[in-house]
Amino acid sequence: MRRPLIAANWKMNLNLPQMRDLVKAIADAILARKLSDACDVALCPPSIYLFPMAKAVQGTAIRIGAQNLFQEKNGAFTGELSAEMVHETGAVFCILGHSERRHTIAHLEDDWMINRKARACRRAGLTPILCVGETISQRLAGETLDVLTFQLTAALIDNRPQKPDDLVVAYEPVWAIGTGQNATPQQAQEAHAHLRNTLRTLIGTAADGVRILYGGSVKPDNAAAIFTQPDVDGGLIGGASLKAESFIGIISAAASH
């Protein structure tokens, strides 16, 4: 039985007082409703706030993740953070290959770089949240499953997880990120089932324990329908994670399934 994970990607939003208030509201709700009995929760703030957020969640069921890292261990890489540095902040997760980094921010990341970052996570003891997903043109061309196979396989070359908890996969259809559009529950399940089958060819039966999250305009009013799908194990939440009420609603939906 895979335990759901709801991970918040705060992107470049909120200031420190707002984050502290949000953490308190989320932690209080998790405790009062006993949501941690059935669901894991992670928050991924901007990197400058990793240390204070790791401190803010001490004594709670919430874990912290980074939004990105650099693949090298050290060196002349101005402005970058190594996996070891991220780990020292108290983070346990790191988002890799998010569509905004693959496609929006000057096309910074390709599959080879993401593979190297995933290997850096493994080296430092971080769990990558590996994002994969197709663009609208790829979906309309019928290439969705091929794209998912390639992205997932490329990320795991010479980097096979040893156990299910060493990897989290997030399916994020690029056309649904920040657009208000959303894959139907059936479309999400088709993609997630394909990803799990691809994982089985790569890592065998351990694939059955790997959590595959859905990311793409998840909100409290559509979360339950998505999370009931058999291969959907939670969500990578963007905009809806910036407000306590909506994020808690999504956590509650995951904990109920």
Account of the 3D structure:
The protein is globular. The chain has one domain (5-255): Aldolase class I (TIM Barrel, Alpha-Beta Barrel), CATH 3.20.20.70. The protein has helices at residues 16-33, 50-56, 83-88, 99-104, 111-124, 136-140, 144-155, 185-203, 220-227, 244-255, and strands spanning 5-9, 40-44, 62-66, 93-96, 127-132, 168-171, 211-214, 234-237. It has 257 residues and is α/β, with parallel strands linked by helices. The mean pLDDT is 96. Strands 7-6-5-4-3-2-1-8 form an 8-stranded parallel β-sheet. The chain is 42% helix and 14% strand. Helix 7 (144-155) packs parallel to helix 8 (185-203) and helix 9 packs parallel to helix 10. The protein contains 10 helices and 8 strands.
What key phrases describe this protein's structure?
alpha/beta; 10 helices
The secondary structure category is alpha/beta
Low-confidence stretches at least 5 residues in length (pLDDT < 50)?
none
Under CATH, the topology can be stated as TIM Barrel
User: Can you tell me the CATH class?
Assistant: Alpha Beta
Report the end-to-end length measured between terminal Cα atoms: 11 Å
In CATH terms, what is the architecture?
Answer: Alpha-Beta Barrel
The fraction of residues in strands falls at 5-15%
C-alpha Rg (nearest Å): 17 Å
Determine the CATH superfamily. Aldolase class I
What is the tally of helical segments?
10
Helix amount: 40-55%
Question: How many domain regions?
Answer: 1
Average pLDDT works out at 96
Compute the number of strand runs.
8
Task: Report strand order across the widest sheet.
Answer: 7-6-5-4-3-2-1-8
- What's the shape? globular
Helix and strand pattern: EHEHEHEHHEHHEHEHEH
The biggest sheet, with number of strands, parallel, antiparallel or mixed sense and barrel status, is: 8 strands, parallel
